[in-house]
Specification:
Layout (H helix, E strand, L loop, with lengths): L2 H4 L4 H15 L11 H8 L10 H12 L21 H13 L8 H16 L7 E5 L2 H18 L5 H4 L5 E6 L5 H8 L7 E4 L9 H11 L5 E8 L11 H10 L3 E5 L24 E4 L12 E5 L2 H8 L5 H4 L31 H36 L3 E5 L7 E4 L7 H15 L5 E5 L2 E5 L9 H26 L1
Parallel strand pairs: 2-3, 2-4, 4-5, 5-6
Antiparallel strand pairs: 1-7, 6-7, 8-9, 10-11
Length: 487
Amino acid sequence: MNTDKAECGHLTEFSAQLARQLDAYLTFQHPDAMQQPDTWRQALAQPMPEDGIGIQAVLAELGEWVIPNGSPIPNPGCTAFITTGATTIGALATLAGSVAAPQRLGLTAFNFLEELSLDWMARMFGLPEEMKGLYSSGGSVANLVALGAARQAAFEALGIDPARDGIARPCRLYASAECHHSVQRAAAVLGMGRRSVCGIDTDQQGRMCPAALRRQLMADQQTNLLPVAVIANAGSTNRGAIDPLREIGETAAAYGIWFHVDGAYGLPGILDPRVLPLYDGLDLADSVIVDPHKWLGAPVGIGATYVKDRELLNRAFTQEAATYLEGACTNDVAAHSMDNLGIPYADMGVELSAPSRGAVVWALIREIGVAGLRERIIRHNTLARHVAERADAHPNLEVVSAPTLSICGIRYLSDRWRDLNELNRRIHRRMVQRGRAIPSTTLVNGTLAIRPCFVGARTTLKEADELVDEVLAVGQEVAQMNDEAAG
């Protein structure tokens, strides 16, 4: 089929068909993709076509073989990961951007919303007025960008431009022992090396110990290591722990070190008045990250980095001039949206080509407002507390990690099992295979916990209760199977 003819259809016709297919998927009445994997794999594993089959036929195949065999992650009962299914407006705004603004450049409404939505989030989360942001693909790149700024600042203080000339001295990053592993990866990519990350001890609740940080900083003063950043969690991915931000930030300031706060998951928790005091000290941060594709319900692929001095990002990540870009626009008075590239986001991070992410975040906030997002955050935190309360009240359950935010750790107890970690590991795998409630697991001080994380916009008290019921039902089933095997 001629390619031009294949593109002649109207979006309204085809998007309506796709919407019906996706609506059917969101009822979650279909079996899991691995129930009949051979069927859809054989249907899709066709030879590469020489001639195309057209939009209508491709949509039919999407609806029959691809969409119904998608991921269970958007299911309200799936609480395994901190990323979740996008809200409807998030998905629609993404579609709008992919059609109407496929690049993050130019003087368009979409690019206007990049800066506006970043400013909205900064105000919503109580960041200092001078903080400005940059979108990227998620927390991993957001941490990389923030630590790139920290590296730039540390070496510029020595009269060195590390982005231009490279690193001339071994570095040290100080992070909670429960920091996200993207911190180590960022250190590697930035040339400081994974071993430059020094894990600071945490307390029983998973929070960084400021005294341990101070001891390490004092010890490192006797070395040639250049301190680059102190990294605190505002909601760790493991347990949702919030480090004592003020004490850590004041310690970093006393030693003249960049203070970075990783709030990829947990920063929106500041909207819950019950935990708001735990964010005291956020104003001391030199950089903060947050992922709208976690708790705000954006499609996966949207993170944000905030820094007090965005010009540092320009120096850390600027690219060499390209004649095909620089000559395409002018700095004169704009009579056309392509007369100027707009804010040079491409020089502030690691992406040149990037989608219009700001319109998605703008749409999410515009749809339900700060009040709606606050209600969601409070609801999710309440769900985690509800799970903990039910576990406390049942003789066969135990709270392993009490919730601070929307993460809770529980385990099943049985006096017929010596190895409770193995028992709960089997319970978890059985729960996943049943597909009704799908949490993850984690280790908390050596104890394996079944770990739900409530972030899905569609997740309610019903799913929280179903999860506890599943742990109890499957726990009894697995314990009984063990008795029968032993007998």
